[in-house]
Amino acid sequence: MIKDILAQQEERMKKTLEALHREFGSMRAGRATPALLDKVMVDYYGQPTPVNQVANISVPEPRMILITPWEKTILHEIEKAIMKSELGLSPNSDGTAIRLNIPQLTQDRRTELVKAIHKKAEDAKVSLRNVRRDANDAIKKLEKGKEITEDEAKKGQEDTQKLVDKYIKNIDSARDVKEKEVMEV
């Protein structure tokens, strides 16, 4: 029973970590990456659609993203979506493709990004703590219902804490890697 609870909670922790990695991937760090466009939605025949589902996205140079739409008619819509996005990038179109030049980050912008990175990492840790609380509540419920012994409950809570510690280390290392990437000049 405790194993089931731990397995279920570890799955939630994995999802928290994956979400954090996606968040970090969509943050601009002075280096071109297709993940920057993950949150950009294009109006495609009246439906909001992610850019990567209507165009080929490549990185021909370290500071450039090349977007080649599958249909030329959608080129203008992609440009509008990029302009509306929070990326702060201006698209250059040649009629067949869009080039996004990624400028160097200013020191102020780097500092802002580091703060945002720390906040996202802290939010992920809070989420892990909520998972831990849920797991511990479920274990205590089993103990109160006399389904497990006090020792088993204590061991289950210790195992939950070990799991949380492991994922907090993963979050810290992901944060450190992203911070280093942002501060790189």
CATH architecture of the largest domain: Orthogonal Bundle
* Low-pLDDT sequence parts: none
List the secondary-structure elements in sequence, H or E.
Answer: HEEEEHEEHH
Q: What's the name of the CATH homologous superfamily of the largest domain? A: Ribosome-recycling factor
Give me the side-by-side strand order of the main sheet: 3-4-6-5
Helix content: 55-70%
Shape: elongated
* Computed structural class: alpha+beta
Q: Could you say what the CATH topology of the largest domain is called? A: Topoisomerase I, Chain A, domain 4
Distance N to C terminus: 51 Å
Number of domains: 2
Number of E-type strands: 6
Radius of gyration: 22 Å
Just give the CATH class of the largest domain: Mainly Alpha
Number of helices: 4
The whole-number mean of residue pLDDT values reads: 87
The largest sheet, given as strand count, sense and whether it forms a barrel, is: 4 strands, antiparallel
Strand content: 15-25%
Topology:
Blueprint: H1 2-25, E1 41-44, E2 47-50, E3 55-61, E4 64-69, H2 75-84, E5 91-93, E6 98-101, H3 107-144, H4 150-183
Antiparallel strand pairs: 1-2, 3-4, 4-6, 5-6
Protein model, in words:
This protein has 2 domains: 2-25 and 106-183, Topoisomerase I, Chain A, domain 4 (Orthogonal Bundle); 34-101, Gyrase A, domain 2, CATH 3.30.1360.40. It is 57% helix and 15% strand. It contains 4 helices and 6 strands. It has helices at residues 2-25, 75-84, 107-144, 150-183, and strands at residues 41-44, 47-50, 55-61, 64-69, 91-93, 98-101. Strand 3 (55-61) and strand 4 (64-69) form a beta hairpin. The chain is elongated and about 70 Å long.
